[in-house]
Automatic annotation (TrEMBL):
Superkingdom of the organism of origin: Bacteria
GO biological process: one example: negative regulation of DNA-templated transcription
Gene3D superfamilies reported in the protein's UniProt record: Winged helix-like DNA-binding domain superfamily/Winged helix DNA-binding domain
Pfam families referenced in this protein's UniProt entry, alphabetically: Penicillinase_R
UniProt GO MF annotations: DNA binding
Family: Belongs to the BlaI transcriptional regulatory family.
Coiled coil stretches, renumbered: none
Keywords: DNA-binding, Transcription, Transcription regulation
SUPFAM superfamilies reported for this sequence: Winged helix' DNA-binding domain (SSF46785)
Name of the protein: BlaI/MecI/CopY family transcriptional regulator
Amino acid sequence: MARIPVTEAESEVLAALWRKGPLSFASLIDEVKSVQPWGDATIKTLLNRLMHKGAVQSVREDGRQRYHARIDRRTYVDGEVQALADRLFAGDRAALIRDLSEG
């Protein structure tokens, strides 16, 4: 799967699904609110953006909608590290690691 660009705020919704998912909408709201002081409308907007990007999907299970992350955490982290290496070190991950270890 190609890298899906995810904002820092959107990553909080994904993190909730990685920690506890799949989750109902109410449970997802509660889980995000346990780490962020956002309103329900903000979380719903972030969830809708993630669904539009294909990073989250809604599946009907036992008569309830449940939300699933479509990308796993490792894939997300790898993509973010590569994006940072691309931006700061012309794609050279080893140079990024050297710079981090020297800092």
